[in-house]
Amino acid sequence: MHPFRTPSLRRVAPTFALALTLMASGSAVSATTAATATATTASASGDRHSAAPAGRAWFTSWAQSQQELAPTPLRDQSVRMITHLGQGGGALRVRIQNTFGGTPLTVDAATVGRSSGDGPAVDGAVRPLTFDGRPEVVVPAGGEVWSDAAALKTRAQDDVAVSLSVSGTVTPGRHTSAFRTNYLTAPGSGDHTAEASGDAYTQTVGSTYLVSAVDVHNPALKGTIVAFGSSVVDGTGSTDCGPGCTPDGTDHRWTDEVARRITAELPRTRQLAIANAGIGGTTSSADCPRNPAGIRGLDAAARLDRDVLALHGVTGVLYYYGTNDLANGCDADRILRSYDEVFERLRTAGIKVYVTPITSRPGYTDQNNLDRHAVGTQVKTGNTCDGTCDGVMDFDQVLKDPLKPNGINPAYDTGDGVHANIAGQKALADFLSLPMLLSSTAHR
Predict the structure, then answer these.
(1) In what order do the strands lie in the sheet with 144-146?
(2) What is the largest CA-CA distance in the chain?
(3) What would the pLDDT profile of 190-222 be if each residue is shown by its tens digit?
(4) What's this model's pTM, rounded to 2 decimal places?
(5) Cβ distance 67 to 176 under 8 Å?
(6) Which residues are CB-neighbours of 52 under 8 A, at least 6 positions away?
(7) Among 396, 331, 322, residue whose Cα is nearest residue 359
(8) Start-to-end C-alpha separation, the chain
(9) Cβ(85)–Cβ(154) below 8 Å
(10) Which of 29, 82, 397, 444: CA 20 to 30 A from 385?
(11) What is the spatial distance between Cα 180 and Cα 256, in angstroms, rounded to a whole number?
C-alpha cells in the first residue's frame, strides 16, 4: 500500500526514520522506513504521520497552497511545474496533493530536474521520483503524498522542474496564481516526464497544478519560515514594475526577496528557508458575514494543518491577514479571536509567530478603520500581541500613504490601493528583521 497523508502532521508522534544515503557520485539516494507496519496502519486508517527524519535535515524550501480544482481536466497527459527554491540541498522530495479532488489521482511517473526558469526545458539530468520505492502512486481523493528523496543537488534560488504523468481523466487541484508560466503536454499524449527538451509541453497555464511543496535535504539549515496570509502574501502585484515596464524575470514576491536577503546577508551557518502559504481572497476568520462561497474552508484555522504544520522544519510563521476580513464585514473582535486560535496552535507546536498590523485598503469605512486600529493596537502591545505572538513586523508603516490613510504609498501601489508593486514588495522585504526570524530557531 502506498503511504499517504491527510491533513494533521504534528498531532501524531513521528513513526519514520528516513535513512538518506548520498553516494560519492551524487547519483543515488535511498529512503527507507523504520516502521513499515506502523506506517501502513496509519495510512490505512487515515491518520497522518510526520515524514521528518531525526536531526531535522529536511526543510520545506518552496510551497504554493492548493485552493481549488482547475477548470479543465487532465486526460492522459503530463504536467511540468516550475518551483523556485529559497534554499538548496543535496536531495529533494515533493508533495503532491489531491485535496479538492473527488476521485483518486493516478501518477504513472514523476521526475525532477533543474530549470533555467525560462521555458519548459530541463537543464542537465532528469531524475526520477519514486513513492515508497515505486515509480507510480495513487493519491486518494482528499489526500496527499510525499515522494521519496531524489538525488538532485540544488542551490539557493534554483528553479526546479517537477514533471508528473497523470493517467485517466481527472481534474487536478491547483494554486490559482503561480506568477510564472507552467506547462502541460497535449491531452492524450501520455508520459513525457523523462524528456529534458520540453518540446512536448506545448500548453501553458498560469497556475500550479498538483505540486504544493518541495523539501530540500540540508542539515546546515536552521529552519523554515512560512509566510501565511491572503493575496498580499501570495504575491499579487509582484509582476508589476510600473507603466510600460517589463519585469526582469520572475520571483519578485516579498518572500522571494527575503529569501535572497537571507542568502546574501546571514552567515552560512545561520541560513533559513522561506515558504509561501498565501492564497488570494482568503480571510483569517471563517465568520466574516460577506465571505464569498469560493473561499469557504480556506480561512486560516481551516488550512493551518495542511499549509503550515504539514511542512517540514518550520520554526516561524509570518502572519499577514486581515484586509479581506474587514472588507468582508468582520469586526476587530472576530479577527482577534481568529488570531488567538491560530497563534495558540502554532505556539503549541513550537512555532514562533510574527504578525503585521492590517494594512490600508480603499473603501474602508470609518468603522473599518476603527477596527483596523483596534487590531493594530492589540498586535503592537508589547511587540508581542499582548503576549500571544512572538514579534511584530509593521508592514503598515512601510506601505501606508502618508496623505491618504486608506491607501498605500503611490510609489508602491499597483493602482488598486491594496497590493504592492515590485518596488513595494522589495520595501517589505528590506524592512523585515532577519535577526527576528533567526530568533525562531533559538531553541533548535
Answers:
(1) 58-63, 211-217, 92-97, 144-146
(2) 65
(3) 999 999 999 999 999 999 999 999 999 999 999
(4) 0.88
(5) yes
(6) 14, 16, 58, 312, 313
(7) 396
(8) 34
(9) yes
(10) 444
(11) 13
